[in-house]
Design a protein that fits this description.
This protein has helices at residues 53-56, 72-77, 176-186, 212-224, and strands at residues 2-5, 8-12, 19-20, 23-25, 40-42, 64-68, 83-86, 91-94, 97-102, 127-131, 135-138, 157-161, 190-194, 199-201, 229-230. It has one domain (2-230): Ribonuclease Z/Hydroxyacylglutathione hydrolase-like (Metallo-beta-lactamase, Chain A, 4-Layer Sandwich). The strands form 3 sheets. The protein has a 7-stranded mixed beta sheet with strand order 8-9-10-11-12-13-15, with helices on one face. A 5-stranded mixed beta sheet has the order 1-2-5-6-7. Strands 3-4-14 form a 3-stranded antiparallel beta sheet, with no helix packed on it. The protein has 243 residues and is α/β, with parallel strands linked by helices. Helix 3 (176-186) packs parallel to helix 4. The chain has 4 helices and 15 strands.
Length: 243
């Protein structure tokens, strides 16, 4: 997701390539301008589909990298200089926009192998709340957690994963049902389902897994949190934030 708030451009967990490992992109490639004039990149965790070094090297200019505490040395070894670590509850200012690290419940290892020189614990995953004229929650990858209730009072937009890149989800993820329950806890003005319809393993037939999860999510939100608007964005489309 590219978040533009108060003239500041924040890019979340960018994966800009046609694929990685055995995973192939099915959605259109990102527009070229996504990689331009980025002020900061928010990295939620170290899995290959969220921290893609090749994609980071495609970005234009001298951007800041905001990463989970414990991930900085790994990125510096790979040539990234402007790396800043955040633990849950800590915040940084990016050109007048406040970026706060939030909890996440997800596997912390650098799949398929842990970070060199660190235990299998890796760097604990985080989410982010971005605060400016609007407030936006980017969940990264997470399961439900108790602190979602009241995480950000008056939240404008919640960007919530509703699927992944394969035929099934393991622990530490939100599926359409659990993502809808997250909306019920967060009570944003607008909920946007993300992390769907883009990647799938080569040689496998996705069936409806590239299209159905966000629609199931929207239907369930209508039942659990009817005051919340669901904005269903196809990969590559955009949303003007509410006034």
């Amino acid at each position: 997701m590219l978040i533009e708030l108060g003239g500041v451009r924040l890019l979340t967990d960018p994966l800009l390539r046609p694929g990685f490992a055995h995973i192939k992109r099915h959605a259109p490639p990102p527009d070229a301008d996504v990689a331009e004039r980025v002020d900061a990149v928010l990295i939620s965790h170290l899995h290959l589909d969220h921290l893609d070094l090749a994609s980071l090297r495609r970005l234009d200019g001298s951007f800041r990298l905001l990463v989970p505490r414990g991930a900085g040395s790994f990125l510096r070894r790979h040539g990234f200089v402007h790396v800043e670590e955040l633990a849950c509850g800590e915040s940084l200012d990016v050109e007048g926009i406040e970026v706060v690290a939030t909890p996440a419940v997800h596997d912390s290892r650098r799949w398929p192998a842990p970070l060199r020189g660190r235990s299998r614990g890796g760097a604990a995953p985080i989410g982010f709340v971005v605060r400016g004229a609007r407030s936006i929650y980017f969940a990264g990858d997470t399961d439900l957690f108790e602190r979602m209730d009241g995480l950000e009072p008056g939240l404008d937009v919640a960007l919530l994963p509703v699927w992944g890149w394969g035929p099934r989800l393991g622990p530490g993820h939100l599926d359409p049902e659990r993502a809808a329950r997250a909306v019920q806890l967060l009570q944003p003005r607008v909920a946007v389902p993300i992390h769907w319809g883009t990647f799938y393993p080569r040689g496998q037939q996705p069936g409806d897994r590239l299209t159905a999860p966000p629609r199931r999510f929207a239907a369930r939100v209508a039942e659990l949190a009817p005051r919340v608007t669901v904005s269903l964005l196809e990969p590559g489309s955009s949303l003007a934030l509410p006034g």
